Input
Amino acid sequence: MNDFELYQPTYYVFGKGKQSRVGELVRRFGATKVLLHYGGGSVVRSGLLDQVRNFLNEETIPFVELGGVVPNPRGGLVYEGIRLCREKGIDFILSIGGGSAIDSGKAIAVGTCYDGDFWDLWSGKVIPTGGLKHGCILTLPATGSEGSNSAVIMLEEGMIKRGLSCDFNRPAFSILNPELTYTLPKYQTACGIVDMMAHVLERYFTNTTDVDLTDRMSEAVLQAIIKAGPVAMEDPTDYEARAALMWSGTVAHNGILGVGRQEDWASHNIEHELSALYDLAHGAGLAVVFPNWMRYVVDKHVARFAQYAVRVWNCEMDFTDPRNTALEGIDRTRSFFKSLGMPLSFEDFGGKEEDIPMMTSKARSDAEGLLGAFERLTKEDISNIYHMCCE
Ligand code: NZQ
Ligand code: ZN
Output
């Protein structure tokens, strides 16, 4: 196990009706004026926005509203939010919705405390040194943004999608009421299931040895998702399945499963180019990319993939040729995504092979020009993986 530091300050409030705690919570975390930040209408239709307005009014907490966050949230609204916060003296951001609303709120919170263009922070030019406090009411278990230290924003100019990870991105509190996810369309539920599994897998595929505790915890989270996912797809109002998914999504990405081990994140970065270019849901893009990344790297890591197959998918170990077991685990992953109605190839969502050179050149790489840690991918590898996604 590697040395690690984990800062996980988020106060989680989980259960039925818990949005009623919001006024008390924003006050507890020092808010004097709140920016109420949300998406394109689901919180209006569900009545949640009205409820939150009432809860804040009951606590006599002044607030200003900024709706209109779109999936794959745009930089334009972040600029607007920062301007509003400065003009109106706002000191707390309350986001209601899925990862997009929460991430947009995080970017506003951090951007408001930076005396320059917030994109300097997201592009990695400048390291953030502060941020307004922020909290959220989650309506879509998927990204884990409610507990994570990251926020992903897309800049309209050049359609560049980038994530920033820093401690200021950790929410002060997150309200998690599984009932608020009953209204999710099947497609969004499925995208969420894939995304949370991907967050575990980005950490699971590691070269760090002696990480049995986090391996076993990861396998347990994956199995819980694999069990609850189809139940929630079948019956959107099954509280226990929704609850299992909601907490799994948080645990998958709040950092606890990645401690002491190298993490990968190549698949996520390869995917970000798909959601940026085609405005595809992040989870749907991952369903296409992740199994192909697995197939691309499996031969160098047969033992780990075989372990994944046996422990997560209950595959039988082929001791004479463990590669068979490893491949079976990848097939099971793919079939599971398919059973959720997710796309598995470019053809399934309208991706174009001719876009691959552009996506490859835009895809994130580190100072050495490489991506990922489990396998260090060159631009050629990334291009090869995109091509596999076309098959
Ligand atoms: O905009 P509204 O009207 O609210 O509708 C949303 C949106 O259309 C709808 N929705 C949300 N909750 C609902 C609901 N519809 C009915 N009932 C509900 N209860 O669902 C649609 C998708 O919402 P969105 O927030 O975009 O989805 P998600 O939570 O998957 O967030 C995706 C974004 O998060 C980023 C992704 O890249 C993408 O930009 N990620 C953020 C991460 C993080 N901050 O740690 C990590 C992830 O890996 C990911 O990259
Ligand atoms: Zn993700």
Remarks:
- The two ends are 38 Å apart (CA to CA).
- The chain is about 50% helix and 10% strand.
- The pocket of 5,6-dihydroxy-NADP (ligand 1) is lined by residues 39-43, 71-73, 97-101, 103, 139-140, 142-145, 148, 150-152, 180-181, 183-184, 188, 191, 195, 253, 268, 275, 282-283 (CB under 6 Å).
- The CA atoms of residues 183 and 236 lie 7 Å apart.
